[in-house]
Amino acid sequence: MKTLLAVFSGTGNTKRVADRMALELIALGGEADVVLIRNEAPMPAIEGYDTLILGYPVHAFNAPKAVTQWLKKLPKAEGISAYILRTSGEPSKLNDASGLTPRRMLSRRGFNVKGEFVYVMPYNIIFRHSDGMAARMWQAVEHRIPRDAKVVAEGAEALKHVNLVRRAAAFAVRIEHPAMPVIGKTFHASRKKCIGCGACVSLCPRGNIHMKDGRPHFGMHCVGCMACAFGCPEDAVKISVLNAWRVNGQYSFDGAPAEDAEVGRYCRKMYLRYFHESEDGEDIKK
Ligand SMILES: Cc1cc2nc3c(=O)[nH]c(=O)nc-3n(C[C@H](O)[C@H](O)[C@H](O)COP(=O)(O)O)c2cc1C
Ligand code: SF4
Ligand code: SF4
């Protein structure tokens, strides 16, 4: 079995999980290639693959605009199996609606959409998880990937049921798609902090940042992935009206995973249930 993993990832979480999935598929005797969905990256040739895994982070209960734009350009490919792999900052069922549009778009292009996998990874906006929580999340990924990879290798079904309330909530916040280019245009680098290194330019998957007079300037193609603000070595990128939610700096996944007692109060029950279900081999309850 040969699998193509096409992945949009702002701050590395989804790429990290997709790489882990690829390793597992190879360990099961298959072949797997990971390609990134970025503006400058050519559309990968799907011929020769029998499975596509589309990876992305949940953005406001939906798939990021970069993903739906990519899907519009994806050539038709009859009979190829497709799975969705997504990451989210919390294990909320509201995030499940984020698979609906990609599912529909893939089906229209002839793909046989078979399943969806959800992995909780640390927030890259709103607030910073502790490194202990990040390590516990990674531990959960390590528990889930072997069984999810088996589902892919066997071509089994694993689609999520999304009820009307979750569909409506996701629809209501889809405003993020038209709003983000406008908000992103007002991102700027702090005069005091910016050292003009240009890292934000290469980090942006949309080619939305260019340097002028030694400082970054932001265009109208932002999808709010947070790569620039998260990856700036000086924490210099101000994200306009969202600035209070800015998260800067890579997480460490290698430390001691948080114990149950160390899981914070924010959505504590949901995180604990997700961790325990990951460890016990159950899927998140519907
Ligand atoms: C604009 C934006 C919106 C987000 N919305 C959600 C959300 O609705 N639900 C959620 O659980 N996480 C949300 N997140 C968190 C990300 O899905 C999560 O941190 C993800 O693992 C980031 O993946 P990446 O590093 O591959 O970009 C959001 C992140 C951003 C930047
Ligand atoms: S990454 Fe940060 S410090 Fe470097 S140019 Fe961009 S804003 Fe300035
Ligand atoms: S400008 Fe920043 S947040 Fe917007 S798409 Fe580029 S890297 Fe992502």
Which key phrases capture this entry?
2 domains, 9 strands, Alpha-Beta Plaits, five-stranded parallel β-sheet, Rossmann fold, two-stranded antiparallel ribbon, binds iron/sulfur cluster, binds flavin mononucleotide, globular, 286 residues
CATH class of the largest domain: Alpha Beta
Unreliable stretches, pLDDT < 50, 5 or more residues?
none
Bound molecules: flavin mononucleotide, iron/sulfur cluster
The chain-level structural class is alpha/beta
CATH 4th-level superfamily of the largest domain: Flavodoxin domain
Overall body shape: globular
Which SSEs are present, and which pair or pack?
Elements: E1 2-7, H1 13-27, E2 31-36, E3 51-57, H2 65-73, E4 81-88, H3 100-108, E5 112-120, H4 131-154, H5 164-172, H6 176-185, E6 188-189, H7 199-203, E7 209-212, E8 215-218, H8 227-231, E9 237-238, H9 268-280
Parallel strand pairs: 1-2, 1-3, 3-4, 4-5
Antiparallel strand pairs: 6-9, 7-8
Helix pairs in contact: 1-4, 2-3, 4-9
The structure holds flavin mononucleotide (FMN) and iron/sulfur cluster (2 copies).
Flavin mononucleotide (FMN) binds at residues 9-14, 57-61, 87-90, 92, 95, 121, 123-125, 224-226.
Q: How would you describe what is shown here?
A:
This protein is an alpha/beta fold. It has 2 domains: 2-169 and 275-280, Rossmann fold (3-Layer(aba) Sandwich), CATH 3.40.50.360; 174-245, Alpha-Beta Plaits, CATH 3.30.70.20. The protein has 9 helices and 9 strands. Strands 2-1-3-4-5 form a 5-stranded parallel β-sheet. Strands 6-9 form a two-stranded antiparallel ribbon. Helix 1 (13-27) packs across helix 4, helix 2 (65-73) packs parallel to helix 3 (100-108) and helix 4 crosses helix 9 (268-280). The structure holds flavin mononucleotide and iron/sulfur cluster (SF4) (2 copies). Residues 10, 184, 187, 203-204, 206, 208-209, 218, 222-228 line the site of one iron/sulfur cluster (SF4). The site of one iron/sulfur cluster has 16 residues, from helix 8.
